[in-house]
Backbone:
């Protein structure tokens, strides 16, 4: 291995050790823990006359909405709380790395995913982002992507779901993370569609094998996700690294989709438009659609729709998570401090046109360490319950937290 790669590898090992060192000993951190970093300006909020007052929940005033019946043969998804076919119950999700560069658009089948993360891919190129899309029903994928490389932070995030990570390589800094025993992944060798774009924007994942796919005048055959998982000896069902509880988030009952104020958070603020200014390149925004009760996703000023069927990419829940990061090198490769006991760990939970302030924490006082579930708490220190449906999560760098606008 070349000297500079060795140095890079030692750096990531040292950084990982530093992350884990923050987890050893002491009391389990609470959702309210404040840290030693200098406090950053709070999120810019429009039309919020009581932003300094605590957001409180009074269970006695919470509006009660009757739950709906689950259809026969279905169960409530551990990712969304919505009914899905019973045969999916023990199937692991996949976590697909999807290119977010404008040249790669439009996306295919991102609208079909259960949870979508948006993170800085690097600090270069105006902090261009990449998506990690968590999907339960991957056996139905026709064409999803385009696929790009992973970053270190995505590996433990995928581990939270016991998801199989689907990507095309990554920088040297992923080496230690890929070697984690909880990490199952498939890298590169997916189907290349002749879409008229450069090579890096042609790669997509399919569930079934492809035969006779035209590429540059030739015929190419590719193994689909189903056969590749089997050939790699990866369990398609949950294994010993599965999550420690039945649902990833605490979820409200199916059919009880309500606003934060109806949940009892009397100081919830209006949240019709969300902009993440620090993601300068993609100009990431979410806008509340009253007719659907969801947040539509915008990139580069354009509403995002599925390339195949024009389905709008939208979410029932939005979580913004203020997170520090470490920059590895001059290329802008980075590692988010997804376990971070030294910051105040601010955040927002947004649903049904309203938002509340939250904090977050990732327990790491046991053998699960970096792949345990991230929890989100209200300002009373109680873990929040989110509405059933799809969820968008942005890891917003702390030095850009003040650029977030909610109005």
Residues:
């Amino acid at each position: 291995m070349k000297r500079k790669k060795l140095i890079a590898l030692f750096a990531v090992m040292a950084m990982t050790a530093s992350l884990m060192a923050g987890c050893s000993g002491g009391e389990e951190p609470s959702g309210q823990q404040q840290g030693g970093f200098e406090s950053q300006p709070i999120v810019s909020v429009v039309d919020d006359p009581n932003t300094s007052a605590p957001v409180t929940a009074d269970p006695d005033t919470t509006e009660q909405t009757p739950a709906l019946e689950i259809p026969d043969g279905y169960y409530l998804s551990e990712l969304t709380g919505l009914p899905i076919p019973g045969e999916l119950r023990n199937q692991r999700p996949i976590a697909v790395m999807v290119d977010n560069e404008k040249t790669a658009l439009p996306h295919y089948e991102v609208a079909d995913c259960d949870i979508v993360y948006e993170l800085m891919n690097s600090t270069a190129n105006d902090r261009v982002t990449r998506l990690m899309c968590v999907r339960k029903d991957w056996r139905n994928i026709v064409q999803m992507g385009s696929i790009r490389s992973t970053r270190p932070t995505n590996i433990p995030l995928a581990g939270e779901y016991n998801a199989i990570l689907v990507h095309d390589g990554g920088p040297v800094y992923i080496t230690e993370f890929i070697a984690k025993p909880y990490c199952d992944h498939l890298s590169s060798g997916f189907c290349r569609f002749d879409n008229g774009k450069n090579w890096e924007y042609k790669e997509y994942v399919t569930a079934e094998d492809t035969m006779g796919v035209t590429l540059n005048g030739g015929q190419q055959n590719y193994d689909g996700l189903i056969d590749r998982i089997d050939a790699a000896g990866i369990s398609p069902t949950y294994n010993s690294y599965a999550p420690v509880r039945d649902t990833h988030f605490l979820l409200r009952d199916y059919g009880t989709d309500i606003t934060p104020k109806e949940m009892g958070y009397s100081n919830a603020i209006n949240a019709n438009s969300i902009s993440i200014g620090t993601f300068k390149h993609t100009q990431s925004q979410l806008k509340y659609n009253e007719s659907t009760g969801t947040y539509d996703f915008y990139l580069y000023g354009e509403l995002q729709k599925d390339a195949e069927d024009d389905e709008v990419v939208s979410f029932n829940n939005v979580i913004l998570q203020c997170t520090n990061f470490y920059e590895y090198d001059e290329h802008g490769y980075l590692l988010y401090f997804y376990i971070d006991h030294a910051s105040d760990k601010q955040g927002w939970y947004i649903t049904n046109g309203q938002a509340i302030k939250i904090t977050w924490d990732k327990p790491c006082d046991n053998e699960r360490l970096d792949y345990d579930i991230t929890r989100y708490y209200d300002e009373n220190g109680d873990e929040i319950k989110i509405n059933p449906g799809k969820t968008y999560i942005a890891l917003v760098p702390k030095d850009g937290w003040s650029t977030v606008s909610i109005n």
Remarks:
- Residues 3-21 form the longest helix (19 residues).
- Helices lie at 3-21, 124-127, 154-159, 175-178, 225-231, 260-263.
